[in-house]
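Following up on my earlier thread - several people asked me to post the actual chain instead of describing it. Fair enough. Here it is, all 458 residues.
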Amino acid sequence: MIVMKFGGTSVANFEAITRTIFIIGGKLDQKPVVVVSALSKVTDLLYRISDAAASSDSDLTSQLMQELRTRHVNLASDLLEQSPALKESAVARVNAICDKLESLVNAVCAVGELSDRNKAIIISNGELLSSTIICFAMNAKGIRTNFIDARKMMVTNDEYLKGDPIVEEIEKRVPPIVAEAYKGMDAVITQGFIASNMSGEQTVLGRGGSDYSASLIGMSIDAERIEIWTDVDGVRTADPRTVQNTKYLEKISFEEAAEMAHFGAKVLHPLTIEPAVKKNIPIYVLNSMNPSGKGTAILRNELIEDGVKSVSFKENIKVINIFSMKMINTSGFLRRVFEIFSESKVSVDLISTSEANISVTVDASEKVDAVVAQLSEFAEVIVDEDKSQVSVIGKNIVRLNGMLKKTFAPLKRTNVYMISQGASFVNISFVVDREELTEVVRDLHYHLFEVEEELEQF
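Reply from S.P.:
Thanks for posting it. Predicted structure:
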């Protein structure tokens, strides 16, 4: 078996879904478990619906619900135009999902209060709608396809909007459900992102969680491979929206991919790698708009050569500097500091320490007032905003001759506020002013990936 996950742009419209079904049709001999996201931009629309309902804006809520319903009904009608019976069933199912959603949304709108549980239910409907339509469309194309409700397989804790998967329970549930659904079928289809807790209440894995769902399912069925189908030709040496002349990476290690995802690369959800590593399942990042392309293979470490693979970045971060003379020769100080971050559920990325100072980075969206207040009881705390983090990622890069010189040579005129080197020798990260980020990333990419290529041409 293989797992094929298709993101929002791969199921965005009639043309994209037709292309996706063609790709799936070419893999039927490998028994695909298909995982789909919501149609492109639909999850954003559902967030807007939930916000409008919470604000008791009935006119806007009604308008947005109609937009949601019309888009999916029209798509189902277009895809199934040649199969009238299936078209009627699909449209009826789409309307039933929208009717149920609208009842909940109207109830929220009436009271003007939106719980996390109800918000999770609302934003999960994109995946339910897309998978329903695609399931009907696959059957209309002659691919016998069964529908699996992911909420019966994917189990999380009680965090409704950012559920933490209960892996042991998922591993127990997935194989028999998939095996039963596959009886007499060519393929099965399910949803990414959505799940339920142990009580059966709706949860979601958080934005971008469909990749994570696919990886957890792949781990549970001991998949031969996990394919992440998106709108780019695999992983590149930098974000092509920021840097020209990026290079395509044919293969990278699990560790490199995890670092890229964690430190800003948009191709994969940061948690996707862990379940695949557990069973040593290769992941392939492929382009649904270019199905014949090789994409990028993500493989175990010993199959990958040493060297720099990418320049990743997080555009908007905060640096929290914590200074206290009490740090000197005092055991337990670091533990006390990071317990405060943990209690406030503030996630730390980079850490740098000296004798009397700790510097950490957090995403700009993190609310740190409570953390700063607690830390200020025993330390001087300064929060620097409008900063960016840049990470050079690759296998054993710190051990490569001249790598540090290559990395920091382009930064002669740039203020560097913090440097952090990963203990695994997979990344070197540093912090710069946000306004200088684009220039820094472009210069760094040029020195690491383009200079030697230019010299070879002479």
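The mean pLDDT is 90. That should answer part of your original question.
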